[in-house]
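#lab-general

N.A. 3:47 PM
ok so I finally got the sequence cleaned up, no stray characters, all 304 residues accounted for. can someone with queue access submit it? mine expired

B.Y. 3:52 PM
send it over

N.A. 3:53 PM
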Amino acid sequence: MKALARKHCYWKNIDKDIEAAVRSCRSCCEFKADPKEAPLHVWDIPESNWQCVHMDYAGPYKGNDYLILVDAKSKWPEIAVTATPPTTNSTIRMLREIFSHNGLPEILVSDNATLFTSNDFRAFCKQDGIKQRFIAPGHPATNGLAECHVQTFKKKLKTMTSDEGTHHEKFHAALFRLRVTPLESGETPAELLMGRPLRTHLDIYKPTIPDINLAVQPPPELVHHLPLGARVQARNYTTSGKWCYGTIVECLGRLHYLVELDEGYTIKRHIDQLQLCEIPLTKNALDQSSPIVTLKIPDFRPRQ
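B.Y. 4:20 PM
back already:
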Protein backbone atom coordinates (compact mmCIF):
# COMPACT_ATOMS: atom_id res chain seq x y z
CA MET A 1 0.00 0.00 0.00
CA LYS A 2 2.83 2.42 0.79
CA ALA A 3 4.64 1.67 -2.44
CA LEU A 4 1.46 2.10 -4.45
CA ALA A 5 0.70 5.47 -2.85
CA ARG A 6 4.24 6.80 -3.34
CA LYS A 7 4.08 5.88 -7.03
CA HIS A 8 1.30 8.42 -7.62
CA CYS A 9 1.75 11.03 -4.91
CA TYR A 10 3.83 12.15 -2.01
CA TRP A 11 3.49 14.29 1.09
CA LYS A 12 5.39 14.67 4.31
CA ASN A 13 5.00 11.70 6.70
CA ILE A 14 3.15 9.68 4.04
CA ASP A 15 4.25 6.36 5.51
CA LYS A 16 3.10 7.21 9.04
CA ASP A 17 -0.25 8.46 7.78
CA ILE A 18 -0.86 5.27 5.79
CA GLU A 19 0.09 3.11 8.79
CA ALA A 20 -2.30 5.09 11.00
CA ALA A 21 -5.10 4.64 8.43
CA VAL A 22 -4.51 0.89 8.35
CA ARG A 23 -4.54 0.64 12.16
CA SER A 24 -7.86 2.51 12.29
CA CYS A 25 -9.49 0.23 9.69
CA ARG A 26 -11.49 -2.56 11.35
CA SER A 27 -11.33 -4.86 8.34
CA CYS A 28 -7.59 -4.45 8.02
CA CYS A 29 -7.12 -5.20 11.72
CA GLU A 30 -9.24 -8.34 11.66
CA PHE A 31 -7.50 -9.97 8.70
CA LYS A 32 -3.90 -8.89 9.12
CA ALA A 33 -1.26 -11.52 9.82
CA ASP A 34 -0.29 -12.56 13.34
CA PRO A 35 2.61 -10.64 14.86
CA LYS A 36 6.05 -12.19 14.83
CA GLU A 37 6.73 -14.47 17.73
CA ALA A 38 8.78 -12.90 20.46
CA PRO A 39 11.90 -14.70 21.73
CA LEU A 40 11.11 -17.59 24.05
CA HIS A 41 10.52 -16.37 27.58
CA VAL A 42 13.29 -17.60 29.86
CA TRP A 43 12.55 -17.69 33.55
CA ASP A 44 15.25 -16.60 35.94
CA ILE A 45 17.06 -19.59 37.43
CA PRO A 46 16.23 -19.81 41.16
CA GLU A 47 18.94 -19.75 43.77
CA SER A 48 17.99 -23.09 45.30
CA ASN A 49 16.27 -26.33 44.32
CA TRP A 50 12.51 -26.63 44.56
CA GLN A 51 12.17 -22.88 45.01
CA CYS A 52 10.20 -22.34 41.79
CA VAL A 53 8.12 -25.19 40.36
CA HIS A 54 6.26 -25.32 37.02
CA MET A 55 3.04 -27.32 36.90
CA ASP A 56 0.72 -28.61 34.18
CA TYR A 57 -1.61 -31.50 33.39
CA ALA A 58 -0.98 -34.08 30.67
CA GLY A 59 -3.70 -36.27 29.24
CA PRO A 60 -6.00 -37.86 29.20
CA TYR A 61 -3.94 -40.81 27.97
CA LYS A 62 -5.28 -44.36 28.23
CA GLY A 63 -7.91 -43.16 30.69
CA ASN A 64 -5.46 -41.39 33.00
CA ASP A 65 -4.49 -37.78 33.64
CA TYR A 66 -1.02 -36.84 34.84
CA LEU A 67 -0.11 -33.91 37.05
CA ILE A 68 3.46 -32.92 36.13
CA LEU A 69 5.65 -30.68 38.28
CA VAL A 70 9.17 -29.64 37.23
CA ASP A 71 11.74 -27.91 39.41
CA ALA A 72 13.01 -24.81 37.62
CA LYS A 73 16.61 -25.26 38.83
CA SER A 74 17.36 -28.99 38.81
CA LYS A 75 14.68 -29.95 36.23
CA TRP A 76 13.62 -32.75 38.62
CA PRO A 77 10.14 -34.01 37.58
CA GLU A 78 7.38 -35.19 39.86
CA ILE A 79 4.36 -36.86 38.26
CA ALA A 80 1.13 -37.96 39.91
CA VAL A 81 -1.50 -40.00 38.08
CA THR A 82 -5.27 -39.98 38.50
CA ALA A 83 -7.78 -42.29 36.83
CA THR A 84 -10.64 -39.80 37.27
CA PRO A 85 -11.00 -36.37 35.68
CA PRO A 86 -8.90 -33.95 37.73
CA THR A 87 -10.60 -31.58 40.13
CA THR A 88 -9.35 -28.91 42.49
CA ASN A 89 -9.60 -31.25 45.46
CA SER A 90 -7.79 -34.12 43.72
CA THR A 91 -5.07 -31.71 42.56
CA ILE A 92 -4.57 -30.42 46.09
CA ARG A 93 -4.40 -33.99 47.40
CA MET A 94 -1.70 -34.95 44.89
CA LEU A 95 0.27 -31.78 45.58
CA ARG A 96 0.23 -32.44 49.32
CA GLU A 97 1.79 -35.86 48.70
CA ILE A 98 4.46 -34.42 46.40
CA PHE A 99 5.24 -31.58 48.78
CA SER A 100 5.61 -34.05 51.65
CA HIS A 101 8.62 -35.50 49.75
CA ASN A 102 10.25 -32.31 48.50
CA GLY A 103 8.97 -29.51 50.72
CA LEU A 104 6.88 -26.47 49.90
CA PRO A 105 7.99 -24.36 46.93
CA GLU A 106 8.01 -20.60 47.08
CA ILE A 107 6.58 -20.06 43.58
CA LEU A 108 4.15 -22.27 41.64
CA VAL A 109 3.82 -21.49 37.92
CA SER A 110 0.77 -22.76 36.03
CA ASP A 111 -1.69 -21.87 33.30
CA ASN A 112 -5.08 -20.26 33.95
CA ALA A 113 -7.10 -23.46 34.21
CA THR A 114 -10.03 -23.33 36.59
CA LEU A 115 -8.34 -25.98 38.73
CA PHE A 116 -5.54 -23.56 39.55
CA THR A 117 -7.52 -20.32 39.78
CA SER A 118 -10.36 -21.51 42.02
CA ASN A 119 -10.84 -20.04 45.48
CA ASP A 120 -10.04 -23.37 47.13
CA PHE A 121 -6.73 -23.70 45.29
CA ARG A 122 -5.79 -20.09 46.03
CA ALA A 123 -6.56 -20.70 49.71
CA PHE A 124 -4.42 -23.84 49.66
CA CYS A 125 -1.45 -21.93 48.24
CA LYS A 126 -1.92 -19.03 50.64
CA GLN A 127 -2.06 -21.36 53.62
CA ASP A 128 1.26 -22.99 52.64
CA GLY A 129 2.96 -19.70 51.75
CA ILE A 130 3.13 -20.44 48.01
CA LYS A 131 3.00 -17.59 45.51
CA GLN A 132 1.10 -18.37 42.32
CA ARG A 133 2.35 -17.17 38.93
CA PHE A 134 0.09 -17.50 35.91
CA ILE A 135 1.07 -17.48 32.24
CA ALA A 136 -0.75 -15.40 29.64
CA PRO A 137 -4.01 -17.12 28.58
CA GLY A 138 -3.64 -19.03 25.33
CA HIS A 139 0.17 -18.81 25.37
CA PRO A 140 1.47 -22.12 26.76
CA ALA A 141 5.01 -21.37 25.60
CA THR A 142 5.37 -19.10 28.63
CA ASN A 143 5.18 -22.23 30.76
CA GLY A 144 7.55 -23.98 28.39
CA LEU A 145 9.38 -25.98 31.07
CA ALA A 146 6.23 -27.86 32.09
CA GLU A 147 4.98 -28.07 28.47
CA CYS A 148 8.27 -29.60 27.35
CA HIS A 149 8.09 -32.28 30.03
CA VAL A 150 4.44 -32.95 29.18
CA GLN A 151 5.33 -33.67 25.55
CA THR A 152 8.41 -35.70 26.52
CA PHE A 153 6.48 -37.79 29.01
CA LYS A 154 3.69 -38.50 26.51
CA LYS A 155 6.23 -39.52 23.90
CA LYS A 156 7.97 -41.89 26.29
CA LEU A 157 4.70 -43.56 27.23
CA LYS A 158 3.75 -44.00 23.57
CA THR A 159 7.12 -45.49 22.65
CA MET A 160 6.77 -48.03 25.48
CA THR A 161 3.59 -49.60 24.10
CA SER A 162 5.49 -52.66 22.88
CA ASP A 163 7.32 -53.16 26.17
CA GLU A 164 6.16 -55.80 28.59
CA GLY A 165 4.61 -54.86 31.90
CA THR A 166 1.57 -53.08 33.23
CA HIS A 167 0.79 -49.43 32.65
CA HIS A 168 1.82 -48.73 36.23
CA GLU A 169 5.28 -50.21 35.57
CA LYS A 170 5.68 -48.27 32.33
CA PHE A 171 4.64 -45.04 34.03
CA HIS A 172 7.32 -45.36 36.71
CA ALA A 173 9.91 -46.46 34.16
CA ALA A 174 9.25 -43.34 32.06
CA LEU A 175 9.46 -41.11 35.14
CA PHE A 176 12.71 -42.77 36.19
CA ARG A 177 14.24 -42.14 32.75
CA LEU A 178 13.39 -38.46 32.97
CA ARG A 179 15.19 -38.22 36.30
CA VAL A 180 18.38 -39.99 35.17
CA THR A 181 18.74 -38.51 31.67
CA PRO A 182 21.64 -36.01 31.55
CA LEU A 183 20.83 -32.37 30.82
CA GLU A 184 22.87 -29.99 28.66
CA SER A 185 25.20 -29.44 31.60
CA GLY A 186 26.01 -33.16 31.62
CA GLU A 187 24.42 -33.70 35.02
CA THR A 188 21.13 -35.47 35.64
CA PRO A 189 18.19 -33.96 37.54
CA ALA A 190 18.86 -36.49 40.29
CA GLU A 191 22.45 -35.28 40.68
CA LEU A 192 21.37 -31.64 40.76
CA LEU A 193 18.61 -32.20 43.31
CA MET A 194 19.95 -35.06 45.45
CA GLY A 195 23.68 -34.57 45.01
CA ARG A 196 24.25 -38.12 43.76
CA PRO A 197 23.47 -40.20 40.65
CA LEU A 198 20.73 -42.79 40.81
CA ARG A 199 21.72 -46.38 40.08
CA THR A 200 20.19 -47.62 36.83
CA HIS A 201 20.05 -50.91 34.95
CA LEU A 202 23.04 -49.79 32.91
CA ASP A 203 25.13 -49.68 36.08
CA ILE A 204 24.67 -53.45 36.40
CA TYR A 205 27.09 -53.98 33.52
CA LYS A 206 29.87 -52.02 35.19
CA PRO A 207 32.64 -53.98 36.98
CA THR A 208 31.55 -54.79 40.48
CA ILE A 209 33.57 -54.24 43.62
CA PRO A 210 33.96 -56.90 46.33
CA ASP A 211 31.15 -57.08 48.81
CA ILE A 212 31.80 -55.09 51.95
CA ASN A 213 30.13 -55.19 55.28
CA LEU A 214 28.03 -52.03 55.31
CA ALA A 215 27.18 -52.36 58.99
CA VAL A 216 28.83 -49.89 61.31
CA GLN A 217 31.67 -51.70 63.05
CA PRO A 218 32.78 -50.67 66.55
CA PRO A 219 36.45 -50.03 67.27
CA PRO A 220 38.37 -53.30 67.70
CA GLU A 221 39.38 -52.40 71.25
CA LEU A 222 35.70 -52.28 72.27
CA VAL A 223 34.87 -55.77 71.00
CA HIS A 224 35.24 -58.73 73.36
CA HIS A 225 35.95 -61.76 71.19
CA LEU A 226 34.62 -65.16 72.21
CA PRO A 227 36.98 -68.01 71.35
CA LEU A 228 35.94 -71.03 69.31
CA GLY A 229 34.90 -73.95 71.48
CA ALA A 230 33.87 -71.71 74.36
CA ARG A 231 30.84 -72.76 76.36
CA VAL A 232 28.16 -70.07 76.31
CA GLN A 233 24.60 -69.50 77.25
CA ALA A 234 22.58 -67.98 74.42
CA ARG A 235 19.28 -66.15 74.50
CA ASN A 236 16.41 -68.52 73.85
CA TYR A 237 13.40 -67.30 71.81
CA THR A 238 11.72 -70.56 70.85
CA THR A 239 11.00 -72.58 73.96
CA SER A 240 10.40 -71.86 77.61
CA GLY A 241 13.35 -70.55 79.53
CA LYS A 242 15.46 -67.49 78.98
CA TRP A 243 18.74 -69.26 78.15
CA CYS A 244 19.94 -72.26 76.21
CA TYR A 245 23.43 -73.71 76.37
CA GLY A 246 25.89 -74.56 73.65
CA THR A 247 29.36 -74.21 72.15
CA ILE A 248 30.72 -71.59 69.76
CA VAL A 249 31.61 -73.28 66.46
CA GLU A 250 32.16 -70.30 64.12
CA CYS A 251 32.82 -66.56 64.30
CA LEU A 252 30.89 -64.43 61.78
CA GLY A 253 32.63 -61.08 61.59
CA ARG A 254 33.24 -59.23 64.82
CA LEU A 255 29.89 -59.43 66.54
CA HIS A 256 28.05 -62.55 65.34
CA TYR A 257 28.64 -66.20 66.20
CA LEU A 258 27.27 -69.62 65.32
CA VAL A 259 26.42 -71.61 68.42
CA GLU A 260 25.83 -75.35 68.39
CA LEU A 261 23.32 -76.07 71.12
CA ASP A 262 23.52 -79.10 73.35
CA GLU A 263 20.28 -80.31 71.75
CA GLY A 264 22.03 -80.48 68.36
CA TYR A 265 20.66 -77.30 66.74
CA THR A 266 22.87 -74.49 65.39
CA ILE A 267 21.77 -70.89 65.91
CA LYS A 268 23.16 -67.46 65.08
CA ARG A 269 23.48 -64.93 67.87
CA HIS A 270 24.87 -61.43 68.41
CA ILE A 271 27.54 -61.04 71.06
CA ASP A 272 24.99 -59.12 73.17
CA GLN A 273 22.90 -62.31 73.26
CA LEU A 274 25.75 -64.52 74.55
CA GLN A 275 27.43 -65.02 77.89
CA LEU A 276 30.35 -67.21 78.83
CA CYS A 277 29.47 -70.02 81.20
CA GLU A 278 30.94 -73.22 82.60
CA ILE A 279 27.92 -75.46 82.24
CA PRO A 280 29.37 -78.75 81.00
CA LEU A 281 28.09 -80.52 77.91
CA THR A 282 25.96 -83.52 78.89
CA LYS A 283 24.78 -86.41 76.83
CA ASN A 284 21.17 -85.86 77.78
CA ALA A 285 20.68 -82.15 77.13
CA LEU A 286 16.96 -82.39 77.81
CA ASP A 287 17.64 -83.53 81.33
CA GLN A 288 20.28 -80.80 81.65
CA SER A 289 17.90 -78.04 80.64
CA SER A 290 15.04 -79.45 82.75
CA PRO A 291 16.61 -81.34 85.63
CA ILE A 292 14.49 -83.64 87.75
CA VAL A 293 14.82 -82.78 91.40
CA THR A 294 14.34 -85.71 93.80
CA LEU A 295 13.26 -84.87 97.32
CA LYS A 296 14.10 -87.23 100.13
CA ILE A 297 11.17 -87.51 102.53
CA PRO A 298 12.10 -88.73 106.01
CA ASP A 299 10.38 -91.78 107.44
CA PHE A 300 7.12 -91.08 109.20
CA ARG A 301 7.20 -92.04 112.85
CA PRO A 302 4.23 -91.61 115.17
CA ARG A 303 4.78 -89.41 118.17
CA GLN A 304 5.33 -91.30 121.42
